[in-house]
Write a structure and sequence with these properties.
By secondary structure, the protein is α/β, with parallel strands linked by helices. The protein folds into 3 domains: 86 residues, Winged helix-like DNA-binding domain superfamily/Winged helix DNA-binding domain (Arc Repressor Mutant, subunit A, Orthogonal Bundle), CATH 1.10.10.10; 101 residues, D-Maltodextrin-Binding Protein, domain 2 (3-Layer(aba) Sandwich), CATH 3.40.190; 136 residues, D-Maltodextrin-Binding Protein, domain 2. The protein is 40% helix and 20% strand. Helix 1 crosses helix 2, helix 1 packs across helix 3 and helix 2 packs across helix 3. It starts with a helix and ends in a 9-residue tail after the last helix. 31% of the residues are buried. The C terminus is likely disordered. One of its GO terms (biological process) is DNA-templated transcription. Belongs to the LysR transcriptional regulatory family. Keywords: DNA-binding, Transcription, Transcription regulation. This is LysR family transcriptional regulator.
């Protein structure tokens, strides 16, 4: 029989001094109560109760056992209440995993406001740009790009959608010219993630449908903040998340390119191991994230004419367009280049979806 239940029955019999009264109090039959006590005595190899026709009394061993069992049951009840409280009240360590750049640029203020609201929760944040197994690695909640989720058993919920932006510095554009079509990227040094992490073929949707290009990597890095630094040093054209370069675009340090074209959006997802008995610390953190991002999760604008597909094969880089001070034909591209100083001074509305 269940040993803990037998302990509870024994304590109730000892307190009430009767098998019958204990049975009534615990809504059990007298035979079951008697069996529980007999099972304990058999397990311990000693008599716990002296039984007469009129009354019950504890043996010396029974009195000692009763005292210790009371403590055990009291401690067990306290542990159960603590666990229940943790499931209903936000408390304890909350292990969070998120992409590195998103964590550095967007997550910190959210964690700060959550910790202020729920001071009994201790956030433990891990930043990682890799595949993450929430269950195996013991994370309570993850904010992940879909390509970085590996567990099949996790529960997911879309958090927000952001956009990728093609950009470069005004100084770079003055020297190399401004690309106006995705194909133009083939003759520009491009800053991208390694191919195995998504820095390969780019699919643009534009006025005449899809255009696929494979821009040549001048520099590859596995961290988008590093790519941003390279872009700010005028080392090439970069394709970066809007949340990372919003201030750079607004200040004119970077210029948004290829406005008529859109790249596939980035979708960030909340992931957690299970819906079953979801701890309050996880539930409230998820609600906190959704409360912050949901108003900004509007769909990206659609583009015109998505019926045709053009594939552009990479070719060796062509010579850079001459500087505006050189004697060059008055082409549309150079006309665009001469206007760059005014572009750099224009404040561009930055997307803050992330």
């Amino acid at each position: 029989m269940n040993q803990l239940q037998s302990m509870r029955v024994f304590v109730k019999v000892a307190d009430l001094g009767s098998f019958v009264r204990a049975a009534g109090a615990m809504e059990l039959s007298s035979a079951v109560v008697t069996r529980h006590v007999a099972d304990l005595e058999s397990r311990l190899g000693t008599r716990l109760l002296n039984r007469t026709t009129r009354r019950l009394s504890l043996t010396e061993a029974g009195a000692t056992y009763l005292e210790r069992v009371r403590h055990i049951l009291t401690d067990l009840e306290g542990v159960e209440q603590m666990v229940v409280a943790r499931n209903h009240e936000p408390v304890g360590t909350l292990r969070i995993v998120a992409p590195v750049v998103f964590g550095l640029h967007s997550l910190a203020p959210l964690v700060q406001s959550y910790a202020a609201r729920y001071p009994a929760v201790v956030p433990d944040v891990t930043l990682a740009d890799r595949h993450v197994d929430l269950v195996e690695e013991g994370f309570d909640v993850g904010i992940l790009a879909s390509r970085h989720m590996r567990s099949a058993s996790i529960v997911t919920r879309r958090l927000t959608t952001g956009c990728m932006t093609v950009c470069a510095t005004p100084a770079y554009l003055v020297q190399h010219g401004m690309p106006t079509r995705p194909e133009d990227l083939l003759r520009h040094p491009c800053l991208s993630r390694p191919a195995e992490q998504g820095g390969e073929e780019r699919v643009f949707k534009g006025p005449n449908g899809e255009v696929r290009v494979r821009p040549p990597n001048a520099i590859a890095a596995n961290n988008t903040e590093m790519l941003r630094q390279f872009a700010l040093l005028s080392m090439g054209v970069a394709i970066l998340p809007s949340y990372l370069i919003g201030r750079d675009l607004a200040s004119g340090r970077l210029v948004r390119l290829l406005d008529e074209y859109r790249l596939p959006p980035i979708e960030l997802t909340i992931a957690y191991p299970s819906r079953l008995h979801l701890p309050a610390k996880v539930r409230t953190f998820i609600d906190h994230l959704v409360e912050h991002f949901q108003p900004e999760s509007a769909p990206l604008p659609s583009t015109r004419g998505a019926s045709s597909v053009r594939t552009v094969v990479a070719r060796p880089a062509e010579p850079a367009v001459p500087d505006v001070d050189d004697e060059a034909p008055d082409t549309h591209e150079h006309e665009t280049t001469r206007r760059l100083p005014r572009v750099a001074r224009t404040r561009i509305a930055a997307s803050s979806q992330f």
